[in-house]
Amino acid sequence: MAMNQPTNVSSVGSEHTSCQLTEKSYVAGTAVPPSTTDNSGLPNPLCQRAVTLVALSIEEKLRPREEEKLPLYKDSRRRLVFVGILIAWFFKGFDDSVISMKSTPDKASTIVPALSRQFDALDLIAWFSAAYFFPQACLAIGFGRLAAVANIRMLVVIDGMFLIVGSILCIIANSAAVFILGRAITGLGIALGFPLCATILISITSPDERLLYMAGCVGVDAMSLAFGSLLGGFFETNIDYRWVFALTIFGAVMSMVFIYPFQQPARPSDHLSAWQHFCRFDFLGFGLFLVCSVCVLLALQMATQNGRWNSTPVIVLFAVATVALPIFILQQRTHPHPDNRLLPRGIFSRDMSLLLGFGFFTMFAMYGVYYYLSTYFQSVHGLSSFDTGVCLLAFFITSGVASLATGVSTEFVTYANTIILTGVTLALVGSAVLTTLDQNTSRLKASLLTMISGFGFGTAQTLAVVFSQSWVAEHLQPLTVSIALMMQLLGGTLGLVLGGSLLNMRVRAGLQHLRGSLSEAQMTDIAQGSLPPEVLETLPAPVTVEVYTIMAQAVQNIFYTATGAVAVALFLAVCMRWHRIKTNA
Predict the structure, then answer these.
(1) Helix 207-238 to helix 76-98 angle, to the nearest 10 degrees?
(2) What was the pLDDT predicted at 62?
(3) Which residue in 217, 273, 300, 320 has the fewest CB atoms around it within 10 Å?
(4) Residue 360 has what pLDDT?
(5) 35 lies in which domain range?
(6) Which residues, in sequence order, are bridge partners of residue 10?
(7) pTM of the shown model
């Protein structure tokens, strides 16, 4: 049956009982199936049969091939594609942690010291990471909508080119501006890679096995954070930092090679032209969302960098965001075609909104914990970047193992809420335990205590991504995963930025009574979380001990903030209705 050829059925002896249905209109959802009754209100068997035949024909065409019904591990082609997805997630985590978010280089945890020496641009150090994270937080939704309609293979190549070009710019950069541009382009590649991986993973897995494989990807991402921190510190100390970006190029090429065999299944919108897809895209909604998110992130970045929350640029940016947000919400609610808006109809149910908020606050706390654990080990215990990475291995490995265990548990646990509540409770306990760390806590004890929060966050961070796709209609699943990832990234970015601001303020306040023993430059360095050896060598021993105490108390305050964020996530989890993991359970 041709896709555009209508099916006509007329009842014998009656000119008033006829029905017409096209496969194109049925698939696109632009036509309502004809009435299956005649003028007298009685059932018309011929019309009913026509509708049934067309529906069965369409379902047969869109049904996956028989071999795709096999479990993923039994299909060599899909298994190869999944390996490519794992490679992409691994190098995404590596790229996340290889450059620190610190604004000072003296005791940064990765390759920032080498970058500072190379470019002599201390005032721009914070933008090395901001340029990378901002595109991900702002563009993931737009790219998610694109991945739902565009050719996946073409997008995989474009994504790889973003990563390769961005990394090459970072390698050849002879100025901070070029390096920041390279990091921004790399961030674009990561932002596009999020929805691509989600779309592909959903296509190559069945609903029953999807949770396990998705949790595996998140677990690989968590463990790759440790790899990036350790390898970045090793390269910064022993080899040229540019090798870090050469590894990113290698990862991009390998993921493209493995993912390219992916065979894209038929989609209901495939019959539409590129112009029709263009006209259906919600450019106004995307523009409003972009303005709001960019303004908020820029304002937070500027306020944290200069410590002036009442500066004119910061106030203006917050004001623009405050105006853009309600306009965006109103525009989405009044959109004439709810299925075509940026956030289509069917995503934000009560429980789905709670789950996305749960992911936001969980990652807000997790990023604050793992990043400022690095500050704790360096600025309170005086460890090198590599030794700090070793101390954090317990946190990252436990987090990765917990993500994998979460995926396995979905095979045995009936209700998703059981896993959600367990994970967030462990994260809450772990964050609260970290508030006990001080300058007298041994390195071994501190490292072991991080395992509680690592297991809790490893479980909790997986949940919003894993369960978001299973709580919406099938055609919304890839976009929903993209939104869940974006919400987590946005929460994590805010946790880092606000944590840095809190650290600076608390340290500055604690140093006030040492003003006679410290110069203004020394106080600025210490307030930014930096304790360079040349500063410590000039201080009397009592002052040095006092500085360590102040730093420990400042980091404790960040852990208190993280504990509060996890408590909010727990509250949201309690408010969710109980959902079965499998509908046939």
Answers:
(1) 40
(2) 45
(3) 273
(4) 92
(5) 7-62
(6) 18
(7) 0.77
370 and 435 Cβ atoms separated by less than 8 Å: no
- Cα distance from N-terminal residue to C-terminal residue, the chain: 38
For residues 329 and 346, what is the distance between their CA atoms, to the nearest angstrom? 15
Q: What pLDDT was estimated at residue 310?
A: 81
Strands 7-10 and 18-21: antiparallel
* CATH number where 237 lies: 1.20.1250.20
pLDDT in tens, 115-161: 666 776 666 767 777 788 888 878 888 888 888 788 888 999 999 99
| Per-residue pLDDT band at 564 (split at 50, 70, 90) | very high
- What are the tens digits of pLDDT across the range 186-204? 989 988 888 888 889 888 8
- pLDDT at residue 113, as a whole number: 56
Question: Same domain for 188 and 42?
Answer: no
Distances (CA, A) of 25 to 59, 69, 238: 14, 27, 63
Strand, coil or helix: 9: strand
Reading the block at residue 354, the tokens are 């709670």
CA contacts within 13 A on the Cβ side of 374: 30
Inter-residue contact 311 to 302 (CB < 8 Å): yes
Assigned domain for 431 exists: yes
Tally the residues of the chain: 585
d(CA 91, CA 228): 8
Q: Are residues 115 and 242 in contact, defined by beta-carbon separation less than 8 angstroms?
A: no
78 belongs to a structural domain: yes
Q: How far apart are CA 465 and CA 477, in angstroms?
A: 10
User: Structure tokens of 37?
Assistant: 């009754």
Structure confidence by residue, pLDDT tens digits, 551-560: 888 889 999 9
* 443-468 and 477-511 helices, crossing angle to 10°: 150
Structure token digits, residue 303: 């306020």
Considering its fold, how many domains does the chain have in total? Answer: 2
Encode 109-137: b = buried (16+ Cβ within 10 Å), e = exposed: bbbbbbbbebbebeebbbbbbbbbbbbbb
Tell me the C-alpha distance between 106 and 526, whole Å: 10
Residue 570: the pLDDT is 95
